[in-house]
Design brief:
homodimer, 396 residues, alpha+beta, HIT family, subunit A, three-stranded antiparallel β-sheet, globular
Amino acid sequence: MPRVAGCSVLAVQEREQPGEIVVDQPGPRVFRTDLRLADGRTLRYYDRSPGHDRSALDQRELASVASASEARFDPALGEWVVVASHRQSRTFLPADEDCPLCPTTPTRSTEIPAPDYEVVVFDNRFPSLVAPAGAPPSPAASPDDPSPVGYAVPGWGRCEVVCFTSDHDSSFAALSVAQVETVLAAWQDRTAELSALPEVEQVFVFENCGVEIGVTLSHPHGQIYAYPFQPPRVRRQLDAARRHRARHGSCLWCDLVGAELAERRRIVRESEHWVALVPFASRWPFQVQLYPRRHVADLATLDEAESRDLAVAYLDVIRRFSRLFSTPAPYIAGWQQAPTGEGRELGHLFAEVLTVRRAEGKLKYLAGSESGMGVFVNDVTPERAAARLREVGSGF
Amino acid sequence: MPRVAGCSVLAVQEREQPGEIVVDQPGPRVFRTDLRLADGRTLRYYDRSPGHDRSALDQRELASVASASEARFDPALGEWVVVASHRQSRTFLPADEDCPLCPTTPTRSTEIPAPDYEVVVFDNRFPSLVAPAGAPPSPAASPDDPSPVGYAVPGWGRCEVVCFTSDHDSSFAALSVAQVETVLAAWQDRTAELSALPEVEQVFVFENCGVEIGVTLSHPHGQIYAYPFQPPRVRRQLDAARRHRARHGSCLWCDLVGAELAERRRIVRESEHWVALVPFASRWPFQVQLYPRRHVADLATLDEAESRDLAVAYLDVIRRFSRLFSTPAPYIAGWQQAPTGEGRELGHLFAEVLTVRRAEGKLKYLAGSESGMGVFVNDVTPERAAARLREVGSGF
């Protein structure tokens, strides 16, 4: 049975077969019920109260999608790339009436068998990283003397889809605080459970929002990737944190938040437990990082007060992005969490939300300098971006 | 007077004032004539024969664009970001009849005063990196004890625009080999001249092609950035090359090309001096690297035979990208060159061409995994991409 650290007490009901409740332990916050989909994938309902009927079964005839995922190591850049060729056939901008993330109706079966839901998390039908077939393997290790060409390991891991609401026409920014609390509890549960898998090195919770950034389903949803290696950004951040700790004996991000709070120019919002700021060296026109004041490793290790404050703080940041322009800005939001293994003590949880929209009707593209050299050119000063994000408010 | 190493013998004529020829040394290949634009920027004509009339002056009233470029260092990622807020007002998708890269006509003045041209290179009116105002500074250095927030230095450097042809409706893929030779000579000249500037650490020659990747001017053109720091990708590649040399005593890329030639599965095309291949850990659906067989630092140090072979080899690769789909694929093409200073002996020149189009009508976006974690997910296996690139041919 999955276990959740921190505040989110969860009751887990596992339905291996219709009606069979394996665990049913009522808790104060969120109740989880698991269901097996027609092709063997797992779907998890997260509800704020017990007693919802989650017994509807997946009635579809659903063949398993062949998965051929590989993680390939590029020795010239020292980075992993995932090659997942089976994803080319994934669902692409379906009409609203064909949305696979809406609840099932009497005339149409979707990914979610129930006629309604609050929050669900299910295994992606077109995953970039796949569950290992046999015995649980270890995280990817590098060979002693790798070829200059590179080398490949199986693309073990997990890719999950998080539906934030059953309302197809809603958005994260339109959720209530209570709904965000449920999403947050689901994120915490998934972080804890996925972190415990032996093949997983890093859990990444994120949301892509907006067709401008290639979102192929408009229903409000996010994703979770559990990687079998330390992603490039994580490795770089840990290296920086290690150097900082060696020199100052303290956490790089704790010190960063302290320095930003002293300077104030790039602070967007602060509350008892959370600080939202625009980083000094922002890559994107509008980019916000949301830090817990306490040194916390990941979402699953937040305490109850931090979790409650986070629901408001995170929603506040997302809402600001929806108010920057005449229409909501497309955005990418993701959680930087400590890795599950080596370097975990160095990691400091934070969310990062960014938009590729640089002005009304204009997008920031990754072109030559960014793609070829890794040098981002930002047309909006971070100080101006912070002032603008303070000014637009969140509507709270 | 600029000097060009390698094969491209250039004659340089500098026109400080109309008709004033400072240098006029006829050479076998390409002739350069410099002109000062109305706001003080330099424009350089590159012609395959001497005697073109390049005396037309810039008749525009052109105010200098205020530049406020900064290079900001992000200590948490160990990377530089360029903040150039004055660029927000840059020219954005002008109508064809307003194109600033077409030759000047009796009724309309553009960036190029001549009534026709072969290849021109001029200083970008909206540069991300700007020429230092006073005495030539040194490359950016890091403070002894940087703040956890980061630190900024002036965004010294150069940004130049390279017009490949005066024909607005053409494209790089439609150029003749002779035209590409002239472009290549201009790239070599600019690489040599910019590399000699004391504030420059890295010269990056590139082309963004296609509205899908944010190109704001459709006239066939590329760009050159001269950075005052080692870009993140360069630093990573040098680190890898240093490790490889320590272990094997040889160049990482020389060994990589050798191993790929032995394996053959990802080779797209080879000729006497150049090898085009799809990297084993490609980040993009179609990504080609074009390597000289000899260990060469940059474009300016190619010999004559390599340069002549390169014009055909590079054009061949670009043409293949235009034949992958029913319409030419948008692409980013860039040259990885050795840095001008530290680590220069480790660098190995290569071109990289990639497209963001993953299938007919579908683009690869940088979403959560790429932006948040630095993990690219590629839907097309490199071996299949190489087979497809071999199959489509180049039309030569």
